[in-house]
Amino acid sequence: MSVLEMRHVSRSYGQGAAEVHALIDVNLSVEAGQMVAVMGPSGSGKSTLLTIAGSLEEPTSGEVLINGIPLTEMSRNAKAQLRRRYIGYVFQDFNLLPGLTAAENVALPLELDGTSARKARLAGLKALDELGLGERAGNFPDQLSGGERQRVAIARAVVGDRRLLLADEPSGALDSTNGEAVMRLIHAACKRGVAAVVVTHDAQLASWADRVVFLRDGRVTDQTMPAPGPESLLTPGSGQ
Amino acid sequence: MSVRHALLALLSEGPKYGLQLREEFEARTGEVWPLNVGQVYTTLQRLERDGLVESDDAAQDGPQKRFRITAEGGRELAGWLRTPPDLSAPPRDELVIKILVAMRVPGTDVHEVIQVHRRYLVELMQQWTRVKEAEAESDLSLALVVDAELFRLDAVVRWLDAADGRLKRAAASPATGPAAAAAASPATTNKQPKQNKETGVSR
Asked: What is the CATH number of domain B3-81?
């Protein structure tokens, strides 16, 4: 069963002559442990796809299923709980709360979901530790570098038992070394069974994914075939 | 790529045998540039002829012969390391030519042609990223080679994205649309930068 499944999803804004079709008949499914990149230029519908996948917005038509359950069958509260417990978000501009420390930022979604402050803090510290940020747990976002802030945002996105990670240009504001570090972390989360959707215009970032889906003018136009293993490039006479 | 200078670089560390040079060359280039042993010995013979390396015994041939760099070879190597490769003229890039041609072929959707290449390039990048993920952490040379490959392929994808956007905008504007481009063809052809014929088709 897919962690995320989008069936014939369309989304339009406005009406009549002013109607804009942001997504048109999009089908996408992501299994546990899989990273799918959605690649397209600005205005192709990437961010709309992500907000619909994360139940932050509803499609005009079509269906979104999380773990096999259609979002339309969930109450508002159930959807809010799903977002807090099950889905993690990573944005280009980190979206950390400036008045909270790194550990408090990471613990926040758990606390909002009713976990005790102590337990949430311990889970937050553990998540930070796993991403090599244990010593920075007490720092505020403005005391962290861009790369560290994004690692905190990833810790927040995977803390607890989140199974679906949705990332919007997660390394867009970072240099290539920090960008690679961020992608390695998302990849590592997938290896632990998390399903991830990364939307980006950046091919280097997309190349970390198991599958790359191309979005143009709101439609999925193409996708990459599963890549053969590394050995195909390292065999003398091939891949040159 | 200059095998000649790569061998000089390896010999700058100390005297070495031909087979040893081949193994070290492949190890240093992350094993992505295989080199046959014949190529190594031919190159060493030329280097010796030019006075850039010398061997233990000029009369003996084959694997038992050990080579060392000469002072002249050291100067040649230092000069080569500091000479930028010739990137002044654009290479005759097969992909650029394909897109330029696709614009003029009736019944051809240039955006579809672009996507075919974009997908292929991203698939290649996925493979290189797997290499990076699997092995490059522990192998610095390989990591550098993989980075170079990824940045090179990324540049081509970016160009395709830019071309895609530019063609879309041009199609929407009658002044610069395909018809206008075709009409202006002779003039624009003359304005093309000089092609570097020696560079040939880029990889």
From this structure: 1.10.10.10
